[in-house]
Amino acid sequence: MDFVQRLTGLVGAENITASPVDCLAYSRDMSIHVGVPHAIVFAKSTEQVSEILQFANSEKIPVTARGTGSSVTGAVLAPKGGIILDFTRMNAVLEINKADGYAVIEPGVICNALNAKLAPSHFFPPDPGSAAIATIGGMIATNASGVRAAKYGTTKDYVKTLTVVLADGRILETGDMAPKSSAGYDLTHLFSSSEGTLGIITRAVVKILPMPEYEAFAKASFPDVDTAGLAVEKIFTSGLELATCEILDNICLQVCRDALKMDIPREVNCQLFMGIDGPKTAVQEQIKKIDEICKSVGGIENIWSDNPVEKAKLFAARGGLVPAMSRLKPGYRLVPLVEDFGVPISKIPQTIAEIQQIGAKYGFPVATFGHIGDGNLHATFIMNPTIPEEWEKVKGIALEFIDMTLKHSGTVSAEHGVGMAKSPYINRQLGESLEIMKDIKKTLDPNNVLNPGKMGFDDSIKDILDENSFQKFLKAPEEVFHFPEGVDNEIMACIQCGFCRAGCPTFGETTLESLNAKGRVTLAYNMLMGNIEASPELAKRLYQCMLCLNCKSVCPAQVKVSTIVRSAREKLVNKGYLPEIFKPALAAMIDAANPLLADPAKRCDSYPSEYKKAIPGNTDAILHLGCVTSFQDIKIIPALMQVLDKAGVNYGALGEDESCCGYLAYLVGDMQTFKQAMAKYSGKLETYHPSQLITSCAGCLKTFRDIYPSYGGLQNGLSVVHAVELMEKLIADGKLTFKTDVPPIKVVYHDPCDMGRHMGVYEPPRNVLKAIPGVDLLEFPLNRNLAKCCGGGGGMKGFDNEMAGDIGYKRLLSAVDLGAEMIVSACPSCKGSFNQAAARARKEKKAKIKVMDITELVASRLA
């Protein structure tokens, strides 16, 4: 677009991208809708936003403000194109004043991040289900709420002042710092639910509260919804004040039984999840009264706890429900359509009954849950988006839900806003008020540049299925370019919530959606839909993924993004877009039996002579020497041999006859080369009929134990173990003993992605380290399934060594912050990444820290 060059001059090249691949990654949110922008701009200040809007207004270019993109309504999409103004980088908490009870924040501050800064003395009460990733700017713009709304209200109740940039670039300050004010129109609240259609919020002063003295939580079980609803009505009308009151109907509970394997008694057909806070004695008195009420109406059981760990167990059904909906059946997923209505509390039981009646009418079960304490229900569809008939059903159900809500004098949007999704019918609730809204919009934004196509205004969609991202399944299914079925199902399971932002290392480095798991799934989905062609630009984004699977650990639906990305790489390779940097390595993998371009004759140079030739056929175990440990890091295998010899293990090696396992080829999607490498290695190994294969490499472990069997390699019951698993057993059996007169050392263990998240091997290395005298084992704050990658996974070190190095460096510095003297891992690639990071730390005079493989540390401490 012509305007991109002028925008670049305003914000700098590092704060804008107009790449079609990057823009496509911003085309989705949790709604069914789609909208592709022409450019993404990262705002840095109020003044810069003012300049951007002055320019956009003069050129009549649409501008849509966006936080983390967790909207359920399409509010952050760009159906008219134009500019996405991304506030991810404007994320500073500018001031916290506990005496006057406020915090000054930029719009990109994450809700949970603010609460982390306020703890343990204060908190910011609004807590949407997406609090881990929701920006407070987005929460203000949609007047978001959450599970505490029953007592604490919604986001607008906590906004004192706003800095807003209007469409023409004028900067407006609303509100004041006084405890109360009657000075003119309440413009602060006007902008607090305007979804960026009237102005763009660039700063806010929000109220904060002292943390309650005491909290207690309950899971209450009931025989039916009516009984639960009666209990809630009696609790609230008796003057008791619940902070939290959530409901799950019988269909939700069945989802939890089927998908989460939860043991919920069959007589339980409704559950409430309640929370109370305040002075301890007052809370305990309220618990007694609540128990009496629930028992009096026919409740089955209330289970209370004041332990946060126990709360997680009690609330497991509520917390696991939404992801479970995308895992109930392959190909099916949660589809939010008309799912956020609110009705008077007394109407809740009747409303849930009507929801189930409407669902039954269409032969379509509807799961209903939500914040019963403030009348807010979420009725969600679990459907296969590829089946046209299901869309017709859910559309009919949705329209009847609207009728039902308005019949009960309710609202069609209790907390998620209007966006695109509710535009076709919001006029039925607002009536003449919508016309007044249009007049206000025209006054403040006469050129309609601020978030057009939303809020039910004249340019909005007219049907709830318009701008449907699943449209091709309905109109032209023959044009869909399928992945393997399992991969298609993984793509469909992603509900585009964006929780993966909290885990993805490459997103952490760049804040680009195309370098986040969600963005990569969006790109893969568009490959599926035929909306994007293979290209070097697409390949770049997909090869800048470390396949580390950190995203899965924070994903509500446990989507295997690494599987999706690797399969997308296969498609790229088949189209001729394998990055050039990998081609020599893959050729050498077959021709020279290693991908390092090393002379195969030198594979065993550092090993004892008896291991240079292939072993005889009567050896119990074969030690896989590995490529990195044969040609680059030659300390690991001799150390492991020392350990095995000390323990009396009968083992041998393929020696000079060993070849590469092929893992790199698998990672980059070159399946032809991978299968060649697998056949070559398997054929050699099976000649000797070993019962066990030992490796010191996390990637080789995954290849031999997981990948080969999936492709017909290494059958016949061969046991594949990592050296650390074997060492754990040898120590337990008393076959390894250690020196006791040794200096103490503080060691932090780094979980390799391939061995940890991919294989679930977490405790063996820790048990080995704990057994070594003098080792003070420390833990990274992010460890085990949340451990950050070393930066070298998934081929990333070869493809983008600079970003890989930055990621590894941050991980190393977090070890330094712990006071660690040594980083230990169980993967030679991780060791290489940390050696590179340690050298950088020494050069920059940040720290001196040792790096070792776990086998080296064990060998050095043997008695």
UniProtKB/TrEMBL annotation:
Enzyme category, top tier: oxidoreductase
Keyword hit for Protease: no
4Fe-4S ferredoxin-type domain location: 482-515
GO biological process, one term: lactate catabolic process
Keyword Transmembrane: no
Highest taxon of source: Bacteria
EC number: 1.1.2.4
Record-level Gene Ontology MF annotations: D-lactate dehydrogenase (cytochrome) activity; D-lactate dehydrogenase (NAD+) activity; FAD binding; iron-sulfur cluster binding; metal ion binding
Protein name: D-lactate dehydrogenase (cytochrome)
Protein source organism: Desulfomonile tiedjei (strain ATCC 49306 / DSM 6799 / DCB-1)
